[in-house]
Write a structure and sequence with these properties.
The complex is a heterodimer of chains A (75) and B (178).
Chain A lengths: L2 E6 L6 H11 L6 E6 L2 H13 L3 E8 L2 E7 L3
Parallel strand pairs in A: 1-2
Antiparallel strand pairs in A: 2-4, 3-4
Chain B lengths: L2 H13 L4 H19 L6 H14 L8 H6 L13 H19 L11 H20 L5 H5 L7 H25 L1
Classes of the chains: A alpha+beta (75), B mainly alpha (178).
């Protein structure tokens, strides 16, 4: 089970989502993608999108206005 | 108001985004009111065009003989100047309103420039958008949001090609830039 980090700091929609989509394509089922972002919209749209894709999703605010989104690839 | 009620109001109205339907209806009503009182529909980039023309004029550049303004005119309201016009107020008010909303929702944050690459592409993208918006008589506000309710066919043409452009842009982003 691998962990992949992507740096999406200071990037706005739709860049974080497209980056996640691209990374997830090359990952194995069970791998975890960790996205670092300071874009509050990503907390809504990346999470909504990943859930719809059937992945396991969680997130945490790691600093003021900075989040990590955890996506476990399920399919 | 008791505290629980206030928190509910804060979460629902101030903090969380509104739905597209609610936002769309409010924008439509506001645009009708604007049109009613000023005789102008909402436009964004026209204001920036005027600022650009005004700045060039200050530097002594003569643009009234440019091909673009000879074919289309600048549509400036009589008695208004490049800096003192409806669109200057609208554009500044949009920024002020967005700032207030962001501050109230405690979403305000200074963002750093990530890299030289981001800076270059942001500038390139901005120039392309500005150039394109003037060829199509506006951005997605002036040439789409304000054009379709005015029963202007060009709004629909703009809409179709906006989707085509966004699709191509996404493909390019996915393939070459990320």
């Amino acid at each position: 089970m691998a962990e992949v980090r992507i740096d999406c700091m200071y990037e706005a929609c739709p860049i974080p989502l497209i980056k996640a989509l691209k990374k997830l394509n090359n990952m194995k089922i069970g791998d975890v993608l960790i996205m670092e972002t300071d874009h509050s919209c990503s907390i809504t749209n990346v999470i909504e999108w990943a859930k719809k894709q059937g992945h396991e999703v969680d997130y945490a605010e790691v600093a003021d206005g900075e989040w990590e989104i955890y996506i476990e690839k399920r399919r | 108001m008791i505290k629980g009620d206030y928190m509910k109001f804060y979460q629902k109205i101030i903090k969380k985004p509104w739905t597209y339907v609610v936002g769309g209806i409010i924008l439509a009503i506001l645009n009708i009111i604007l049109f009613w009182f000023s005789g102008k529909t909402w436009r964004i980039t026209s204001g920036f065009l005027y600022w650009g023309m005004g700045i060039l004029e200050k530097f002594g550049l003569e643009h009234s003989n440019w091909y673009y303004f000879n074919v289309y005119g600048n549509e400036l309201t009589k008695g208004k100047t490049f800096f003192n016009n409806e669109y200057t107020i609208l554009n500044l008010a949009v920024i002020l309103g967005a700032l207030i909303a962001a501050l109230l929702a405690s979403e305000f944050k200074w963002k750093k420039i990530k890299s030289k690459k981001q800076l270059v592409f942001a500038l390139l993208g901005g120039i392309l958008m500005g150039y394109g918006s003037r060829l199509s008589f506006g951005c997605n506000i002036g040439a789409y949001f304000s054009a379709i309710p005015s029963f202007s066919l060009h709004g629909w043409v703009y809409a179709i090609f906006m989707f085509v452009g966004a699709w191509i842009g996404c493909k390019l982003l996915f393939k070459f830039l990320l």
